[in-house]
Structure formats: C-alpha cells, structure tokens
Amino acid sequence: MDWKKIRQAVRTVLAAVLICAASVGITGDPAYAADMGAVYGIYEHGTGWSGYHGDSKTARAGTGSYVTAIRASLLGQPEGMSGTLSYQVNLSGSGWLSWQENMTPNGSTETDMPLEAVRMAFTGQLAENYDVYYSVYQNGSWTTPVKNGETAGTEGHGLRVDGLWVTVTGKGAEVPEGPNGKSVDPTRPMVALTFDDGPSKYTPRILDSLEANGGRATFFMVGNRVASYASTVKRMADLGCETDSHTWAHTYLTGMSEGEILQSLNQTRDAIVAAGGNAPKGVRPPGGKINDASKAVLAKAGMPSIVWSVDTLDWKTRNAQHTIDIVLSQVQDGDIILMHDLYEQSAIAAETLIPELTRRGYQLVTVGEMAELRGGMAAGQSYGHFR
To answer: Which residues of 240-252 are buried (b: 16+ CB within 10 A; e: fewer)?
Structure first.
C-alpha cells in the first residue's frame, strides 16, 4: 500500500471541498462545523484495510476479526485554520504508541495483536474551535463516546477493539448521540434481509428505505457488476450494510475448480473494496448450490457460505405483492430472507417490507451482526438462519 499516494488523494479531495466551500462563501467560522468531518478506516486482522468511513459512520470488523490499526484525517477543514486530527492507539503487548495524523497508520498491520483503546484530539486552532468525539466497539457493544484525548476502550484487560466511530462537532456543541443508536439489542427479534445479483439501478431505492427506517441489509454482489455502481456500493458500506460476495460472474461453485473459486472470490473482493465497500465476510453460493468440495475451498478462503430460510422467489414471479405476502406470512426471529435487487418489483416490495417489518418489532440487521450475537460463523460452514 502506497501511503504517500493515499495521503495525497485525501489532500486532493480536501482541496476540492475547500474550493466548493469558498464558492458559497464558507470560511473558517466554526459555526460551519457541519462542513468539516472525520474520515477514517480500520485494519481488520486477516482481511486488511476497510474502505474509508465518513463522519459518524461506524467501522466494524467482520465476524471473528478485530482491529489492529487505524488511520484518520479530515475533510472540509476551514481554510486558514491550523491544526490536524491526531490519534493514538494502545496496541496489546506494546502499550500506547506515538500520536499520528494525516492518514498515517497507527497500530500494526503485520502482527495479530489487537488494539485495546484509542485516543483522538485536535491540534492547533482546530482544538480551539472543534471537539472530536469517538467510540470503540468492545466486548460486544459500543463504548460511551469520549472526546478530545480521553480514552475510548479498556486497556490492560485483554479486551480487543472491534470497531471505531468518530464525529466532529463545533466547540461546546451538544454532545452527539453516538453509535449506540445503531447497535443491535440481543433481547429483541431480528431478521437479515439479503439481496442477490446486484448492484443495479434499483438498489438505491432499497438503501433509501433502509436509511429512513434505521435498518441494514446484506448485499451479495456479482463482482463484474460492482464497478458500474461504485457509488452505490460505497453507500451500502456507509450505511452499515454488509458488502458480500456472489462470485465474479454468478457461476455455480459446484462446477468450479478450487483455483477458479479462489480467483472468483479474490476478483469480487478487490472490486468491492475498490468501489468503497468492505471486504466480503461471506459468500452466497449462486443458486444455493454448495457441496463438500466447495465448502472445503471456502474454508481455505476463510469464508462461510450464507444461504436462506425464506425464499421469496422474487426473481421468478417479478411480483411485488407476492414477495411481500411470502415474507410477512413466513417471517420469524432469526430468518435470513432471500431477495434480489436486480428487479424493480423487488425494490418496490422492499419499500413496503422494510418499514412493515420494523413496525412489527423486527430489527433489520446484517447477517454478520445476527451471527455475532447467536453463536458466530465458521469458515467453510453453511448457514441459513440464526435462531
């Protein structure tokens, strides 16, 4: 990874933001705090760097993984205002490392030691005009947000950091709610909506409904479609949805060699990450076809197979009401629901199902979130529900 190029890219985006700000008369007045925000990423053990997450977006490691390093910067810093966003990490076995800034990685990308705690703070004039709040996901929940150099996380007790959340406010502004509003309540029923074969021009309609209703979903994407819908894939990740694999060309795993399966998974992963998504944590086998040989290959790749417990047959009927009726008549706690975002009628059905399932008391979560609370997933194994 060329960190110099990454930092230069961040500066380029920042420059563009500043030009836009200047064009509408925005200067260094801290009243315009909303025009500045954090941008950050996490290094997931066994996977690598996540995509960049914008201000107030949660960055979570996948099931079975954890955070070993972070990097962060700012977008929209007021012109002429000095300072940076700096960050310090407590790396298990090493203690507190030196402060870093400007997307310089802090932690370790070469060992399996997790982070235990994080501190963040502004320097220069930024410290006089803004507050930075942050939280880590640790021991199954988000910590209460802290600010301006305070410690997020528990050091010295063997608890690892599994996620990061950061937001910027004007100095002395109301304390932000934090990421707990998006956390999953393990005592309440939950279902995982999953969408195959996309992304497509209809996917944003599903994302709109998820965002409006505080839900998330899992998208099993065909790799060769991803580049054409990069902004959609990035938005999935920004909303906390999972960006998972449906192979590169929707080819049955049972008819592929080990090398072909691995190549397909790698191509799809690279395309998703390049588009701004997170590296896939699971695979939806096309057609649901999976056998012992393909499971063994997935085990080598470190990925589980995700099937389903409710099949809407939306690809076949292309009838929104039929899809709605199937889900509402069959759904129960722990279900994985199969839909396809390739068809307009499926998006129309989702626009009804998402608020209705929420009204009925279901939490709309990702497959990984539900698995994490109900026993987890093992590479090479296949899962159709989490009761």
So the answer is: bbbbbbbbbeebe
- Kindly state whether residues 258 and 173 are assigned to the same domain: no
The Cα 37–Cα 172 span in angstroms is 16
What's the DSSP call for residue 35?
Answer: G
Identify whether residues 52 and 164 lie together within a single domain: yes
Tell me, yes or no, if 385 is annotated catalytic: no
On whether both 216 and 343 belong to a single domain, the answer is: yes
Check 45, 246, 340, 385 and give the catalytic one.
Answer: 340
180 pLDDT band, cuts 50/70/90, is low
For residue 371, CA distances in Å to 63, 188, 339 come to: 8, 14, 19
CB-based burial label for 89 (10 Å; 0-12, 13-18, 19+): buried
Among this protein's residues, is 157 annotated catalytic? no
The answer as to whether 84 is a domain residue is yes
Question: Is residue 273 domain-shared with residue 238, that is, in the same domain?
Answer: yes
Whether residue 264 contacts residue 241, with contact meaning beta carbons closer than 8 Å, is answered with: no
- Residue ending a domain, choose from 150, 177, 204: 177
pLDDT score, position 9: 52
Quote the pTM value: 0.60
The CATH number for 332's domain is 3.20.20.370
- Same domain? For 11 and 130 the reply is yes
Pick from 342, 344, 366, 364: which is nearest to 353 by CA? 364
Residue 207, classed as helix, strand or coil, is: helix
* 183 belongs to a structural domain: no
Both structure tokens of 125: 């004039």
* Owning domain of residue 44: 3-177
For 15, list phi and psi in degrees, rounded to 5: -60, -40
Residues in contact with 208: Cβ distance below 8 Å, sequence separation at least 6, in sequence order:
none
Interatomic CA distance for residues 40 and 70, integer angstroms: 7
Q: Which of 55, 196, 238, 244 is catalytic?
A: 196
Q: How does DSSP classify residue 257? A: -
Judge whether residue 341 has pLDDT over 80.
yes
**What is the overall mean pLDDT for the chain?**
89
Quick one: pLDDT band at residue 181, thresholds 50, 70, 90?
Answer: low
Contact (Cβ atoms closer than 8 angstroms) between residue 198 and residue 225: yes
In this structure, are strands 67-75 and 37-44 parallel, antiparallel, or unpaired? antiparallel
